[in-house]
Design a protein that fits this description.
By secondary structure, this protein is mostly helical. The protein contains 5 helices and no strands.
């Protein structure tokens, strides 16, 4: 939270808590619906899943409060190293969702294509810094 201005920290922490709770609720709901479908399929009774869904709503609420407590503990933890995420699994799932790089080579190919357009036979004596400046100007133009 060092990068957040002091007057916005409560809003950002609240948004973080909601995101962690929403992610955990979604994963819990998917797991419970899958298990209730399997149980209903084994029993062969279509009405049996209704009672299980009513019971699971209280389980989701208690799970959400546990996840929010876990997120609050993460925010109050003094150690901010990445290895601490192993102690907070809900926060770790959120971290992996939003901080994972997309494995795509398209931006790199685009960069090399633009670099090839800059480095022509008439511009073969550009210094490294000038080439880098031209490339950054070309790539970042709006």
């Amino acid at each position: 939270m060092k990068w957040v201005p002091p007057d916005n920290r409560s809003e950002v922490s609240q948004a973080f808590l909601e995101a962690v709770a929403m992610m955990d609720t979604a994963s819990t709901t998917v797991a419970e619906s899958t298990s209730s479908q399997l149980i209903a399929g084994l029993e062969g009774d279509d009405d049996s899943g209704y009672e299980e869904n009513n019971c699971s709503s209280s389980a989701v609420a208690s799970s959400t409060s546990q996840v929010k407590a876990e997120a609050m503990n993460f925010l109050s933890d003094a150690d901010k190293s990445l290895s601490r995420l192993h102690f907070f699994p809900a926060v770790q799932r959120l971290f992996l969702q939003f901080n994972t790089a997309l494995p795509s080579s398209a931006p790199v190919k685009r960069l090399f294509t633009i670099a090839g357009l800059i480095e022509t036979s008439r511009r073969n004596r550009l210094s490294d810094s000038n080439f880098e400046k031209l490339l950054m100007l070309k790539v970042n133009k709006v």
